[in-house]
């Protein structure tokens, strides 16, 4: 590619609203241009990076056995009403009407569409499991779009969905995605950490992990152990359960409350009402060292069998959120042993909930022997709600906790039957019985990755792309395009390299060397070859963007370093 014809111009001034270094450099170096808040065009340089990230994702998804498809952006509102999300998704969902006044939404995610699709295509266990993915534009009317591609309102996502016949199957599908994600982020050259997370708005009954690119500008705090592999998203852990006042032990339930009072139940209830998505997920209350009560997320059903399995007991009854709200006035679901009738629950509610909520912080309150994220989701994260940096790790007790800021670049969930039940995605099992499919969903912020990498890899002169996703491999810069000897050598190198599939950007612009070098550092192509006065003796100046040491080498030596 000849730079004189490249649609890209480096800017001298950066827009004042660009706060993040990645945002400034991506604008300045001519990778992206803003059309409206959170809405961007990719110029050729930016698009080349984006396509390379997509290619890595496709290769690893395909290798994991997933199949690519492509679904519509426009989604009938009926589907969202069926799943129950039309009412709860809020203003982030962009809603519109067609000429016949029919309601639509612009897809912020595709659970409804894929579940409907698979429901119509698959009806036997013989055709399961299956994992499907797409790379597609998503729309979310974010309250605060910012940092360029980090938080857009129109952005590119890879979303995948798995359909299994059993929870064990889901676990295998989930692990396959976990592995694919580590390979994808490794290949993109990201520094990241996979952490435990809360399901958030998507709902779901199983485990969930976030992949966090480490960067100061990140909106989440990651807690990790210096010794074991424990890592969690602190904000999520804190938002899962607000603290409640000390409660007294009632009806033989042991009191294990050690955390200081900060919130009353009323405050808690208010919080839960305001932010239904951040509700308490799963907290186990212990009595006489046996689990007797479980608080569950109230915005969706809990798989009763799974719960029985987790508790290792048959005598478990589930009250859904509605029943519990009516009985106790609290908007959380409740599960307890049969025999604890709802009126008893109502009587117990406050003390119990306080104890359970507060107890979330105590290791003893969690059901022993259940691996968080693997079986029924027990909050491991809750353990570190009040953690401080440098404290002993609550898991291995050998290392200490460290805090880092992170950007969520990927998120994997075990959804369970939330969508298959809501939308009726069933299959016939090997005994001829009708069952709901067990689902997982897996997202990657494709466009966000560009900014995350730019955030991690830049210096005071510009971007520093890793070879795997750089817009070009080599930046070939003749000092003067009017010098025939220089141009002859530059053209020769250009030919030799491109013939070997090396992507070369040839700076054939009639500019001063200083301008060319500044632009080159800004754009951040991994290798730069300057062809100057020494061209006469067949020598060039070779520089790696990352390290910056200039070396005068022969043409052949430069070639052998690159190819
Ligand atoms: P966030 O917490 O940053 O709002 P999310 O949890 O709402 O993200 P998911 O629903 O998990 O996002 O979507 C899957 C992935 O899509 C995220 O892990 C993230 O990488 C990416 N993503 C989400 N929202 C945006 C956005 N507004 N702009 C760019 N990428 C996004
Ligand atoms: Mg979000
Ligand atoms: Mg998130
Ligand atoms: Mg997420």
TrEMBL record:
Top EC class of this enzyme: ligase
One Gene Ontology term of the molecular function aspect: ATP binding
GO biological process, one term: prolyl-tRNA aminoacylation
Entry's localization field: Cytoplasm
Residue ranges annotated for the Aminoacyl-transfer RNA synthetases class-II family profile domain, each copy included: 38-466
The enzyme's E.C. designation: 6.1.1.15
PANTHER family recorded: MITOCHONDRIAL RIBOSOME PROTEIN L39/PROLYL-TRNA LIGASE FAMILY MEMBER, PROLINE--TRNA LIGASE
Function, in words: Catalyzes the attachment of proline to tRNA(Pro) in a two-step reaction: proline is first activated by ATP to form Pro-AMP and then transferred to the acceptor end of tRNA(Pro). As ProRS can inadvertently accommodate and process non-cognate amino acids such as alanine and cysteine, to avoid such errors it has two additional distinct editing activities against alanine. One activity is designated as 'pretransfer' editing and involves the tRNA(Pro)-independent hydrolysis of activated Ala-AMP.
Protein family according to the UniProt entry: Belongs to the class-II aminoacyl-tRNA synthetase family. ProS type 1 subfamily.
Complexes and interactors: Homodimer.
Protein name (record): Proline--tRNA ligase
């Amino acid at each position: 590619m000849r730079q004189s014809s490249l649609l890209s111009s480096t800017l001298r001034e950066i827009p004042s609203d660009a706060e993040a270094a990645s945002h400034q450099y991506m604008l300045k170096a001519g990778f992206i241009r803003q059309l409206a808040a959170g809405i961007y065009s990719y110029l050729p340089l930016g698009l080349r990076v984006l396509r390379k990230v997509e290619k890595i994702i496709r290769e690893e998804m395909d290798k994991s056995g997933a199949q690519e498809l492509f679904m519509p952006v426009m989604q009938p509102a009926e589907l969202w009403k069926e799943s129950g999300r039309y009412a709860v998704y809020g203003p982030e969902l962009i809603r519109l009407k067609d000429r016949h006044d029919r309601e639509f939404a612009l897809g912020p995610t595709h659970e409804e569409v894929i579940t409907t699709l698979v429901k119509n295509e698959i009806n036997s266990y013989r055709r399961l499991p299956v994992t499907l993915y797409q790379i597609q534009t998503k729309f979310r009317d974010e309250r605060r779009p910012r940092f360029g591609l980090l938080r857009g309102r129109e952005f590119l996502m890879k979303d995948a969905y798995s359909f299994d016949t059993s929870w064990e199957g889901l676990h295998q599908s989930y692990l396959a995605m976990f592995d694919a994600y580590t390979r994808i982020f490794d290949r993109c050259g990201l520094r990241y950490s996979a952490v435990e997370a809360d399901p958030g708005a998507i709902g779901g009954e199983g485990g969930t992990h976030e992949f966090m690119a480490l960067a100061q500008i990140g909106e989440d705090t990651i807690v990790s152990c210096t010794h074991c592999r424990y890592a969690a998203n602190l904000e999520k852990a804190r938002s899962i359960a607000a603290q409640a006042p000390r409660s007294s032990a009632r009806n033989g339930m042991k009191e294990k409350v050690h955390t200081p009072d900060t919130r009353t139940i009323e405050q808690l209830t208010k919080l839960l009402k305001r932010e239904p998505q951040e509700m308490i997920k799963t907290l186990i209350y212990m009595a006489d060292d046996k689990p007797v009560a479980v608080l569950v997320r109230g915005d969706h059903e809990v798989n009763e069998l799974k719960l029985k399995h987790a508790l290792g007991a048959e005598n478990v009854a589930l009250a859904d959120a509605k029943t519990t709200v009516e009985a106790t006035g609290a908007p959380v679901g409740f599960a307890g042993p049969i025999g604890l009738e709802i009126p008893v629950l109502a009587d117990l509610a406050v003390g119990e909930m306080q104890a359970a909520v507060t107890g979330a912080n105590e290791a003893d309150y969690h059901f022993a022997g259940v691996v968080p994220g693997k079986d029924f989701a027990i909050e491991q994260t809750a353990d570190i709600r009040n953690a401080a940096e440098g404290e002993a790790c609550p898991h291995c007790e050998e290392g200490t906790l460290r805090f880092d800021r992170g950007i969520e670049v990927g998120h994997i969930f075990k959804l369970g039957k939330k969508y298959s039940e809501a939308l009726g995605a069933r299959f016939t099992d090997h005994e001829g019985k009708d069952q709901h499919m067990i689902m997982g969903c897996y997202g990657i912020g494709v466009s966000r990755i560009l900014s995350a990498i730019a955030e991690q890899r830049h210096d005071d002169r510009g971007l520093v792309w890793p070879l795997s996703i750089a817009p070009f491999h080599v930046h070939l810069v003749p000092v003067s395009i009017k010098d025939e000897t220089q141009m002859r050598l530059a053209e020769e190198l250009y030919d030799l390299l491109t013939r070997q599939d090396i992507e070369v950007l040839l700076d054939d612009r009639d500019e001063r060397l200083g301008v060319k070098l500044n632009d080159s550092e800004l754009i951040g192509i991994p290798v730069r070859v300057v062809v100057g006065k020494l061209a006469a003796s067949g020598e060039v100046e070779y520089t790696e963007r990352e390290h910056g040491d200039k070396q005068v080498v022969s043409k052949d030596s430069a070639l052998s370093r690159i190819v």
